[in-house]
Write a structure and sequence with these properties.
This protein has about 230 residues and is α/β, with parallel strands linked by helices. It is about 40% helix and about 20% strand. The chain has 2 domains: about 35 residues, no CATH class; about 170 residues, 2-enoyl-CoA Hydratase, Chain A, domain 1 (Alpha-Beta Complex), CATH 3.90.226. Strand 6, helix 3 and strand 7 form a beta-alpha-beta unit. Helix 5 crosses helix 6.
């Protein structure tokens, strides 16, 4: 038969693992592993880069905030916290924002773990990206010189029956108030000021973001931030 050959009275069948079941184990540290499964049974270049960064306790949010990448980021934080509950975790952000519920899952994980989470804005930190940036550990929130930060009120589509629209509007108002209160806590601004400034898109340069309270430092290089050590003052 094709794919088989006789060996005495025993048949030897050549088999290959299917792409659906192929897995590749990538070492993150001496004490843990992450299993990455893909359609080709391996990992692409981007996957290897992100795994290498994870080994250095760096997590990268480089897209809109969605359920899938929020779950991955939360899992990575839990993994790094389990490996070392005292060493800082670095969250780099270049994001236009996205799902509020997905972003809140990341935020709650940041608060759940015992580690300090240092946040770094590079490129763009808008909407939920801005929220996660300012939610980093006080004194360890950074922006690169040309990063842009944008804050606005939550938005979303409303439809359905009159009763549905009423419920959705109430929920949106609740989320707006909750987000304003949290951003006020993170920045030191009043809740009323946050409501006024987020009524429309409000843009900040890196230095303006520092003055407003979104970040604590504006640095050009990671060694200025003391990555892996205690942050230094600017």
């Amino acid at each position: 038969m094709r794919g088989e050959r006789a060996l005495g009275s025993v048949k030897v069948v050549n088999t290959r693992a299917t792409a659906d079941t192929a897995e590749k184990r990538v070492s993150v540290s001496n004490s843990s592993e992450i299993v990455a499964a893909g359609p080709q049974g391996g990992m692409g270049l981007d996957d290897h880069i992100y795994q290498r960064l994870l080994k250095e306790r760096i997590i990268f949010l480089g897209s809109d905030v969605r359920d899938d990448n929020a779950n991955a980021i939360a899992a990575q934080m839990l993994l790094l916290a389990a490996e070392d509950p005292e060493k800082d975790i670095w969250l780099y952000i270049n994001s236009p924002g996205g799902s509020i519920s997905a972003g809140m899952a990341i935020f709650d994980t940041m608060k759940w773990i015992p580690n300090d989470v240092a946040t770094v804005a590079m490129g763009l930190a808008a909407s939920m990206g801005q929220f996660l940036l300012s939610a980093g550990t006080k004194g360890k929130r950074y922006a690169t010189p040309h990063a842009r930060v944008m804050m606005h009120q939550p938005s979303g589509g409303i439809g359905g029956t009159a009763s549905d629209i009423k419920i959705q509007a109430e929920q949106m108002l609740f989320v707006k108030t909750q987000m304003a209160e949290l951003i006020a806590e993170h920045t030191g601004q009043t809740v009323e000021q946050i409501h006024r400034d987020s009524d429309r898109d409000r843009w900040f340069g890196a230095q303006e973001a520092k003055e407003y309270g979104f970040v604590d430092h504006v640095f050009e290089r990671s060694d200025q931030a003391g990555q892996g050590n205690n942050p230094v003052s600017d």
